[in-house]
Amino acid sequence: MSKKILAVALAAAMILGLASVAFAASFSDTKGHEREAAIDRLYGLGLIDGFGDGTFRPDESITRAQIAKLIVYAMGLKDAADMLAGVPVGFSDVPANHWASGYISVAASQGIVLGYPDGTFKPEQNVTYAEILTMILRALGYGPALQNLPWPTAYLAKAAELKINRGINFLANDFASRGDVCGLLANALTVPKLVQIGYGDSVQYVVSGTNNTDAVYLLTDMGATYEEGYLVSAPDLFGNNGTTVQLEGEDPWSLVEGYTVSGLLGHKVRVWRNEAGEVFYVEDITPANAIQTATYVQAEKKLKLKDGTKLDVPGAGTYFKNYAKQNPSFSDKESVTVILEGGVVKYVVKYSYQWGVVDSVNLTTSRVTLSNNTGSQTLLLKDWDIIWSGAANSLEDLQKGDVIDYISADRDVKKIVMVVTRNAVVGTFEKLSGTTVTIDGVNYSAIASGIANSKALGSDVEALLNKDGKIVKMTTLSSTPSSDGTLAVVLAEGQGSDGFTTVYKLKLWHTDGTESVVDVASKITFNGADVAASAVIDPKDTARDLVPGDVIRYKTSSGKVSEINVIVDWEPTSDLGINDTLSLVAYSGVDYKVTADTVVIHLKKDGDNFNKAEAFTVSGLLDLQGTVKGAVVGSSSGILADVVVLVNAPTPASDVLYGMIYGTYQAKVGSEVQTVLRVLVEGTITDYPAGTSPTVIGKGTVIGFKVSATGSATSLVDLRSDAGDNITYQASDSTSNAVYKWRVADIDLVNNVLTLKEMDEEGKANPSKPPMYLWLSDNTLFYDTTGSNPVSLTAEEIIKEAIVDVYYIEDPSSAKNNTVVVLVVKGY
Fold it and tell me: What mean pLDDT is reported for the chain?
């Protein structure tokens, strides 16, 4: 991309950095997508565009021709590609008039992409993750350094070292999705390039920014420049006009229109500017251990860190409080954030927006009453200078239910910033993972006090979002069952009163595991006949038709149940014959075909009484052995099983499985809020409910478990502390000398032999410790936990000298003697 084009693109864009930035949606299908931020960043830079229908299609694969264009843009070589458009390309399957001919020519000339031995390029062939990482590394200058090393292992290891794959989980040989490619390239934009110093016999490659070289990045290639330093002014300071940032010792720089920065005051940052000198991206480069929480000890006039270290209070001009720059002023035991430089306090920061939901506004007295996690609060704003932002421009514009984020200066200044958000999300509360809430498949961050009680899981909710898109308040809404024939199991029936007449009610279990209580109309259609509800639902009438355990389909009208059809009476007494080979269930002389769409309901009884209903997996159904009581409801075709009902069926669990916990969240499973484990096995993440308080939930934990017929994880075992099943755990750091760690000395994939040795950082083996020889099998699992998220590896991706934990079967009487079950890469 030329500097001119870059300047135009940046002037109109809002580039997402590590600060708080609001984006207008660039594509209709990327809102809420896990790669939305990266897609928006590349779109703002002008590196990507979408399809004519306004979509980006982030989950589709990407072709070699599309990748050539993307990399050429990122290298700042668009002008060269434009000049070569229409010029014959050196590949037999890329005609001169191919839309990507110029990009392919430039990418090939730069060694980014290669052709095939038959002289073709295959422009429409999809690209794998290993291939796209290779192209990105070549664009970063690593081609010469890696070209003689094993592919793709060396490239994958280097990408992990540079954190290009940060936050992205994949299998190297799978086709890369368009969204993930954006994520990988966005991670690479500010990775220092490898540059050549010396030529001829003295050729050497070094990371730019070292060995007296200037640091260069892909953003540099695109014509951008940068400065590094401590951020001492940004739009979240009252002394700032909202459109500039300033580094320590520098003059202020203007922000690109629409781009803002918050939350980085006092941080060490890299400020990227376009050709016009405007800031389009502020990158936080503060070391993680340089940002710490401290408490002021008034008696000693010291700042005390969490580890007990006491530090001197910095001098004037280094304290940011309530978004107004002041001299140091502390109260005893006040908690602040400190930014350290060389172990000394460089800046002290205590600032945060306060928030509240508007309850009422009194225009006569300029009084706004808000509610928040601490109760009710009133803002007296008469004679105050109010800076408005967001959905309101005056007190008259405020509405009940608006969310206000505000910051105020000292009372003698009487200045306040009010950001008004009028954004409510309504939907089903599906998951709760830490402070991440999932509503209708979209993840939202929430402040801790804004999360509804987990008992609301599975319910319809209204969530109010603040300026950062975080949930600050969530309330449960009453739900109405579907009016289009809903499948359910009757849990209980009874009656109540609305103050005038008797109201009949049903408590129902639904096939998604949720429960609800519904009102029943006084007149209903029951099994095709029009009857009074009292004739069907009356707990005092022993001859009533509807009882707990009945499987029904029901319809509603005006919010009340108006039609009920019992499809299986409690309790089925017929025998089911299960043919797991042909996926058939025999019932009443008919063989019904079971498909993935078949709903399997398990009814459990205590003595002669119905006890509970639960979901059952199709695979669990087909795994059942022996005689099983139940019933089958056929589909309209008569041969497909629509619903299979089981009564007190055995619940077989799978054989022991092994995997690594990728993460956890909470969700309503049946009538309980359970912890759901996300387990990574061979590149696939599967969710397993694991009860209300599983003991094994740590991310990266290697576990053994079984899967019940209801799809839940059972018999959880942390293989580190309780191996069981004759499995031995060898930790990477459990060596005879702290200098050494267990590392891969050799991996023989022909004979499936893994050799481990205690080795130091220079690869020297411990002479007093013999090697360990282990067998690999087709079922051995390989993981890499060196990044922010664990990823699955193949045996071919394991490199020598990798630091590893191993879990292996040690049984001298077995043919599986010393066979590796799981190998975990802990470092390189």
Answer: 82
Strand partners for 800: none
Q: Scan for tokens 């640091």, then name that residue.
A: 215
Q: How far apart are CA 98 and CA 121, in angstroms?
A: 12
β-strand partners of 442: 439
Distance CA 520, CA 505 (A): 6
Residue of 444, 470, 469, 465 whose CA lies nearest to 401: 465
pLDDT, residue 181, reads 94
Helices (H), 613-652: 618-622
Q: Which residue is listed with tokens 């990988």?
A: 184
Mean pLDDT of 134-163: 91
> Does residue 673 contact residue 454 with C-beta atoms inside 8 Å?
yes
User: CA 492 to CA 549: how far, in whole Å?
Assistant: 8
Half-sphere exposure of residue 715, counting CA atoms within 13 Å on the CB side?
15
Cis peptide before 152 (omega within 30 of 0): yes
pLDDT, tens digit, for every residue of 805-818?
A: 999 887 555 544 68
Q: Under 8 Å CB-to-CB from 425, ≥6 apart: which residues?
A: 439, 442, 444, 462, 463, 465, 471
All residues at 6 or more sequence positions from 696 whose CB lies less than 8 Å from its CB, including other chains: 661, 677, 690, 703, 716, 717, 718
| Nearest CA among 50, 47, 49 for reference residue 139 | 47
230: phi > 0 → left, psi -120 to 50 → alpha, else beta; which? beta
- Comparing 99-103, 373-377, 628-632, the range with the smallest average pLDDT is 373-377
Which residue in the block uniquely carries the two structure tokens 């699992």? Answer: 781
b or e along 508-539 (b: 16 or more beta carbons within 10 Å of the residue's beta carbon)?
Answer: bbbeebbbbebbbbeebebeeeeeebeebbbe
Angle at 245 between CA 240 and CA 250, to 5 degrees: 110
Write the secondary structure of 365-382 as one string of H (helix), E (strand) and C (coil). Answer: CCEEEEEECCEEEEEECC
Amino acid at 369: T
Q: How far apart are CA 349 and CA 379, in angstroms?
A: 24
pLDDT attached to residue 8: 26
Lowest-confidence region among 227-241, 314-328, 384-398, 790-804: 314-328
Smallest CA-to-CA distance from 86 within 59, 104, 70, 72 is with: 104
CA separation (Å) from 450 to 214, 454, 470? Answer: 47, 12, 9
**Separation of alpha carbons 805 and 169, rounded Å:** 20
Pairing mode of beta strands 819-827, 781-784: parallel
How far apart are the two ends of the chain, measured CA to CA in Å?
A: 36
Cβ atoms of residues 771 and 761 within 8 Å: no
pTM of the model: 0.46
Instruction: Give CA separation, 646 vs 549, 577, 593, 618, in Å.
Output: 11, 12, 16, 12
Q: What are residue 752's phi and psi, to 5 degrees? A: 55, 45
What distance in Å separates the CA atoms of residue 129 and residue 156, rounded to the nearest whole number?
A: 9
- Asked whether the beta carbons of 267 and 284 are under 8 A apart, the reply is yes
Q: What are phi and psi of 690, to 5 degrees?
A: -135, 30
- Cα distance between residue 673 and residue 455, in whole Å: 7
Q: Kindly tell me the sign of the dihedral angle through the C-alpha atoms of 355, 358, 359, 365.
A: positive
3-state secondary structure of 444: strand
Q: Hey, what amino acid is at 671?
A: S
pLDDT of residue 256: 78
**Nearest partner of 341 among 306, 289, 379, judged by Cα:** 289
Residue 10 has pLDDT above 50, yes or no: no
Render the burial of 556-566: b for 16+ CB within 10 Å, e for the rest. beeebbbbbeb
Dihedral of the CA atoms 317, 319, 320, 321 (nearest 10)?
-120
Q: Is the backbone peptide bond immediately before 571 cis, with ω within 30 degrees of 0?
A: yes
Give the three-state DSSP class for 209. Answer: coil
